[in-house]
Specification:
Largest interface: A-B, 20 and 24 residues
Helix content of chain B: over 70%
Number of strands of chain A: 9
Order of helices and strands of chain A: EEEHEEHHHEHEHEEHH
CATH class of the largest domain in chain A: Alpha Beta
Order of helices and strands of chain B: HHHHHHHHHHHH
CATH topology of the largest domain in chain A: Rossmann fold
Radius of gyration of chain A: 18 Å
Radius of gyration of chain B: 17 Å
Distance between the termini of chain A: 36 Å
Structural class of chain B: mainly alpha
Largest sheet of chain B: none
Strand order of the largest sheet of chain A: 5-6-7-3-8-9
Number of domains of chain B: 1
Helix content of chain A: 25-40%
CATH architecture of chain B: Orthogonal Bundle
CATH topology of chain B: ABC transporter involved in vitamin B12 uptake, BtuC
CATH architecture of the largest domain in chain A: 3-Layer(aba) Sandwich
Number of strands of chain B: 0
CATH superfamily of chain B: ABC transporter involved in vitamin B12 uptake, BtuC
Oligomer: heterodimer
Number of helices of chain A: 8
Shape of chain A: globular
Shape of chain B: globular
């Protein structure tokens, strides 16, 4: 693998319950890239992230650069509010010590002693930021996000984009992000994979997101396809 | 204080505390009621123990293991909802028990009788409960992570199968110990109620887990003391003491 390349995927195929979920997907990620994985619901986006993490069996080739630390931020954690867990407890589960927890929480914009708060008392936007912070424990070079804006209101969405961009710059992170939100792709990514079980497009968003590729991706007519500043 | 009472109290405190502590993990996974059917399933084992005069926990344990294996196998084969399978398994346990169980011993099997615990049984129960506490303490944070999300735990390289096996084994042991105290019918309450009360009162994991254990200890002690005063069976009194603490905890819910 070349110096800059941190992930190489060749002819990836994933089948779950006798159904093909991802077919013949190939792509590469370079250090510092922000790759978004775009597609409708049920397109295999989350499955792709989990496969890259080694959580799901696959055929094909997934090659990560050696010695890479990878952080993962899942889409939802529906059972987390079933137990009384403070933010500090949640970070302890990942082996984070108090000082590290405070420093990371501080870097995502929370004040001192926020870690004592109960997870169940957080707003959806605060919880999402806590999840992002949790992904940063252990100082990973790569972060995998599964729909980080799910359930977050529009005003908080903007904060989370800005936060991701800031963290990426500050920590020299490579980010792989699953989304079905086109505006995220234009604002945030260096490359995009359009996925609807089969790969539909792959490359810089301004080049590959054409009305035709979006129509193939989502079906029907897509009116909003480019976000120009 | 007579020796028999002291013996019951010591067993009650250790088993009640361990059950409360483990219960705090089971509540987080919505598994608290699993102990119910498993408890019911021990009834044939308790019946055999009472008929042939050996420790009820020893009689109960193989039946709990059988129950766990059956529910796991049925779920793998049928993909039916867990509650349907547990209903099937526990109803069968009760049915078999009533075919085997001598009527005069039914009460001890159904609601337990800690007050007649023998010295040897007591020593074994206390040792097993203590061992169980340390095992649960060791796996606690990993099981919490698995309870929150198996995928998240896998991404943190947690060996889910290994921890689940230890966890299920711990549940089997606590059910086998619990039937001695509160009988086959009430075991679920021994794990579920202290944890529910602790959840009402706590703001973090340490308060929750230690709270569940302390409430388990207090409930058991209160139940056994009330038996001494009133003469009613200790098993139901332990559960009612636990329920009273739960009701009080609702007032102070945080």
């Amino acid at each position: 693998m070349g110096n800059e390349l941190i992930l190489k995927v060749r002819n990836l195929n994933v089948r779950l319950d006798h159904q093909s979920i991802i077919e013949n997907l190939s792509f590469e990620v370079k250090r510092g890239d922000a790759l978004t994985i775009l597609g409708p619901n049920g397109a295999g986006k989350s499955v792709l992230l989990k496969t890259l993490l080694g959580l799901i069996p696959y055929r094909g080739e997934i090659e990560w650069a050696r010695g890479l630390k990878i952080g993962y931020v899942p889409q939802r954690l529906p059972f987390i509010k079933d137990i009384p867990l403070s933010i500090k407890d949640f970070f302890n589960l990942k082996g984070s010590h108090e000082k590290e927890t405070e420093a990371i929480l501080n870097s995502v914009g929370f004040k001192q002693d926020f870690s004592r708060k109960k997870i169940g008392d957080l707003s959806s936007g605060q919880f999402q930021r806590v999840l992002i912070a949790w992904g940063l424990v252990g100082n990973p070079q790569v972060l995998l996000f599964d729909e980080p804006m799910t359930g977050v209101d529009i005003s908080a969405e903007e904060t989370i984009y800005n936060l991701l961009a800031k963290l990426k710059w500050e920590r020299d992170l490579t980010i792989l992000l699953v989304t079905h939100d086109l505006s995220v792709v234009y604002k945030f990514s260096t490359n995009v994979i359009c996925l609807n079980r089969q790969p539909i497009c792959y490359g810089p968003p301004q080049e590959v997101l054409t009305p035709e590729s979006l129509q193939r991706l989502y079906g029907g007519e897509v009116k909003y396809y480019q976000h120009k500043h | 204080m007579d020796n028999q009472f002291l013996l019951s109290l010591i067993v009650g405190i250790s088993v009640g505390g361990a059950a409360g502590y483990l219960g705090s993990l089971m509540l987080g996974r919505r598994m608290a009621l699993v102990a119910g059917p498993l408890g019911h399933l021990t009834l044939p084992g308790i019946a055999l123990a009472l008929m042939y005069d050996f420790d009820v926990s020893l009689g109960a344990f193989p039946f709990v293991i059988l129950g766990i294996v059956l529910i796991w196998l049925f779920e793998m084969r049928t993909k039916l909802p867990m509650e349907a399978l547990t209903a099937l398994v526990f109803a069968s346990g009760v049915a078999i028990a009533f075919l085997l169980l001598p009527v005069k011993q039914a009460e001890a099997a159904l609601v337990g009788d800690i007050t007649k615990v023998r010295l040897g049984e007591a020593v074994i129960s206390v040792c097993v409960a203590l061992l169980l506490f340390f095992v649960v303490k060791k796996i606690y944070s990993k099981i919490v992570l698995i309870n929150i999300s198996e995928e998240l735990a896998k991404s943190e390289k947690v060996d889910i199968r290994k921890y689940n096996l230890i966890y299920l084994g711990s549940i089997a042991i606590i059910v086998a110990l619990g039937v001695k105290m509160v009988g086959g019918l009430l075991t679920a309450a021994l794990v579920a109620i202290p944890a529910s009360s602790a959840r009402n009162l706590s703001r973090n994991l340490a308060q929750y887990s230690s709270g569940a254990m302390i409430i388990g200890i207090i409930s058991s002690s209160m139940g056994i003391l009330l038996y001494k005063i009133t003469g009613f069976p200790a098993g139901p009194l332990i559960i009612l003491a636990s329920t009273s603490i739960f009701l009080i905890s609702m007032i102070f819910k945080r």
